[in-house]
Amino acid sequence: IGDDVKQGAVVIPKGTLLTPREVPMLATLGIANVTVIRKPKVAFFSTGDELRQVGEPLGKGEIYDSNRYTIRAMLDKMSCEAIDMGVIPDCPDQLRDAFLKAAEVSDVIVTSGGVSVGEADYTKNILDQEGDVGFWKIAIKPGKPFAFGTVKDALFCGLPGNPVSVLVTLHVMVQPLLAKLGGHTQWQPTIALKAKAATRFKKSPGRTDYQRAVYHVDTEGQLWVSTTGNQGSGAFSSLSQANCFAILEQDRGHIDVNEDVTIEPFNAVLN
User: Fold this and answer.
1) Torsion angle of alpha carbons 212, 216, 220, 222, nearest 10°?
2) Is omega for the bond preceding 142 within 30 degrees of 0, making it cis?
3) pLDDT by residue (tens digit) across 19-69?
4) CATH code at 193-265
5) Burial bucket for residue 240 (CB in 10 Å: 0-12, 13-18, 19+)
6) Which fold has domain 41-181?
């Protein structure tokens, strides 16, 4: 008696996400029902006249809308209810209707595109009329044009249009927000580790840089990290080869071989 769990002990702390590790514990104790906080509802859409659905032929100046696939795949792992609203063209009236509809059905609105310099007027005007802009632009790379605010009673996260920027800002900015809204108070970011640079990392001071990288452990237990190549915000191939971010500090410049580098291994959302 009391070998596994003692009477009066806290078995699962409040704010814990129920996973395949917690649910069997509840069943073991004969607990059939527990009170939970509902999953946040997240409505998301891409913006842009140049976007086409995967499978459609491309015309001059057109690209496939890959960002909604990134957003959906990540949201599905973030314990929320995802609502895909498709692609909205660069039309003020259609954008306003999309924002208002999204605000009616969700707790959080996530968009990709329409927040960079030169293309943000429509979105900003709508937010000024129907909501509020909390901040616009952050000192990270990729992902500088990230925007945050409110539309009616919903929170708004405006992601850049470049594919890698979408993934990085979802990972760094939106993931902890959704955890908090979902009551997951036990959530923690991936533990940062120290590694040695096995290759040179190019960087200019001014922004914290989340570079795609791959790490390994040598026979002596030393962590080494290498760049996966092209770090452009539209270069997704270097991300598909990575297993971590090399996080290069805001004021830091180029990193040479054997210098210390902070890495963040990809968590369950990115694996």
Assistant:
1) 20
2) yes
3) 999 999 999 999 999 999 999 999 999 999 899 999 899 999 999 999 999
4) 2.40.340.10
5) exposed
6) Molybdenum Cofactor Biosythetic Enzyme; Chain A (3.40.980)
